[in-house]
Amino acid sequence: MQLSSSDNVSLPPTAESLSEDDIDRTFQKLQKHEPPAGIVDQILQRIRQLPAEQIYQPSTPLESPGQKDIVKQEK
Amino acid sequence: MQLRERITHQHKELTDGMLAQQTLRGDQEAFAQLVQRYSNSLFNFTYRFLNDYDAASDILQQVFTQLYVSLPNLRTGEPLKAWLFQVARNRCLDELRRKRVIHFSELQTPGEDDELSPLAIIPDTSPLPEDIAERHDLQDMLQQAISALPPKFRAVVLLRYASQLSFSEIGRTLQMPEATAKTYFQRAKPLLRASLKERLVSPSSAN
């Protein structure tokens, strides 16, 4: 976005505080996009294609490091 | 309510940590719930960051696959949001680098006066046109303005506008102080404003 002498950009004669509300209001209209349909199933399919040892099974023991920080489930 | 629906409903009431625990016990429905919880906001972030639908979809799958594999080592006592967006941001940067859109120097932490274009230095205090919100090509202009931002500003702006993260969450995601996240956001606004003005003045030459 380099300015050149031939650019016809209208600039104010004096410096004042920028109106940031305009930017906020405008960009809050940023359209939300949905992920592709079936993305959850696609991800689960990808998980199932992992090596067998990386797929957690009901009998997988919880002995890996970092488990101490896991919130205990309420009984 | 069917059993599957009841299980899904129960999953929605669980914290990220609880769903992670259940995933580790082999419950893939619990992991599916984590995916559903964050996929929309993550997709919006990656799509806007790259302006590439297919790349964003692929990265979304990569992020959740990485989450699944990383679960045993994560601090799941806290929400996974920051970790997910951090991974997504890194994957987006990898994609930009792969496309050779950015140079390595742009990824480094800048000094105070980096990344300022002449348009940002010249203050523009005139109000935006009244009908800007009504333009049919507004979304294109917004996306182009975002895509023109340096990657580190782009990440903050998108996490704020597209994914509605607080500045505290943005700081945790991008591993910077909250104050820095706010500063980057404030510094990005003149660039966005200038970019929008440029496109309104001469749409064809701005691209």
Identify low-pLDDT runs of chain A. 1-18, 67-75
What's the total number of strands of chain B? 0
Cα separation of the termini of chain A: 59 Å
Which chain pair has the greatest contact?
Answer: A-B, 52 and 66 residues
What gross morphology of chain A would you assign? elongated
**SS class of chain A:** mainly alpha
The stretches of 5 or more residues of chain B where confidence is low (pLDDT under 50) are 108-127
* H/E topology pattern of chain A: HH
Instruction: Kindly estimate the percentage of residues of chain A that lie in beta strands according to DSSP.
Output: under 5%
Question: Explain this structure to me?
Answer:
The complex is a heterodimer of chains A (75) and B (207). Chain A has 75 residues and is an all-alpha fold. In chain A, 24% of the residues lie in helices and 0% in strands. Chain A has helices at 20-27, 39-48. Chain A is elongated. Residues 1-18 and 67-75 of chain A have low confidence and may be disordered. By secondary structure, chain B is mostly helical. Chain B has ten helices and no strands. In chain B, helix 2 (16-24) packs across helix 3 and helix 3 runs antiparallel to helix 4 (53-70). Chain B is elongated. The termini of chain B are far apart. At the A-B interface, helix 1 and helix 2 of A face helix 2, helix 3, helix 4, helix 7 and helix 10 of B.
List keywords for this structure.
heterodimer, A: 75 residues, mainly alpha, 0% strand, elongated, disordered N terminus, disordered C terminus, B: 207 residues
Brief write-up:
Chain A is mainly alpha-helical.
Helix-strand blueprint:
The complex is a heterodimer of chains A (75) and B (207).
Chain A: H1 20-27, H2 39-48
Chain B: H1 3-12, H2 16-24, H3 28-50, H4 53-70, H5 81-98, H6 118-121, H7 138-147, H8 151-161, H9 167-174, H10 178-201
